[in-house]
Design a protein that fits this description.
three-stranded antiparallel sheet, 230 residues, 16% strand, elongated, alpha+beta
């Protein structure tokens, strides 16, 4: 049986709650919030004024009183990602102490929540293009953070090792690791977004904002090989 067929068999077994002791492992789907998919969010692309169509209050974001705009970007995990629980007897001789955990098809991407997109026309007195550029930069900062995570995965610098006595324990441990990765990635991106807001005075310093945009475009191009997706 080749590897592709083995993965199909394991997926079916996992779907029906089956077990395959002493073989390759058991694949477990990581719980996924569908609100981050296209119907609930926007994967990275160029934003337009039409994207800001929500009736959400402009008080929901710290910089909204300055810009008259609300946008909510975050990092998400690809829906195809799974936890693999590998029986330890395959790795060493002896008893059956449990399972070693790993991930398959793991990657990350930024998404902009449609339910959080708002445009307050009464407060947005500056040029629309400048405001859109500002929000695009915030989106790019989050996408860059996601691509950097993908690069770490590809290069092997993002390491994780977890185990459990049962498949469920391994699954829960894997979910905690993903949550921790997402939290830390988002925290770094949000800190950079705050720096961007302060250095550009929330978009008021147009020349400084332009310099940021150029830097972010360069970083996006450098990370083009590490684009993730739903």
């Amino acid at each position: 049986m080749n590897l592709n067929k083995a993965v199909i068999v394991l997926s079916l077994l996992a779907w029906f709650g089956g077990c395959l002791p002493g073989y390759f492992g058991i694949i477990r789907q990581i719980p996924y919030d569908e609100s981050g998919q296209e119907e609930g969010g926007v994967s990275y692309r160029i934003l337009t004024l039409e994207d800001f169509r929500s009736s959400a209050s402009s008080d929901n974001a710290p910089h909204s009183k300055k810009t008259g705009v609300v946008s909510c970007a975050r990092i998400r995990m690809a829906s195809k990602a799974k936890v693999v629980a590998i029986p330890q007897p395959l790795l060493r001789r002896g008893g059956f102490p449990g399972y070693i955990g790993n991930f398959t098809d793991l990657e990350f991407y930024a998404v902009l929540d449609r339910e959080c997109l708002a445009w307050n026309q009464r407060n947005a007195e500056r040029e629309v293009s400048i405001l859109l550029e500002h929000e695009q930069a915030h989106f790019a900062i989050m996408e860059i953070a996601a691509r950097r995570l993908n690069r770490q995965l590809y290069e092997g610098s993002l390491k994780f090792r977890f185990k459990g006595a049962t498949q469920d324990e391994v699954g829960r441990a894997g979910e905690k690791i993903i949550a921790n990765i997402l939290t830390k990635g988002a925290e770094r991106a949000l800190a950079r977004s705050q720096q961007f807001d302060l250095e550009t005075d929330y978009g008021s310093l147009v020349v400084k904002q332009g310099s940021w945009v150029e830097l972010l475009q360069e970083e996006m191009e450098d990370l083009a090989d590490y684009i993730g997706g739903p």
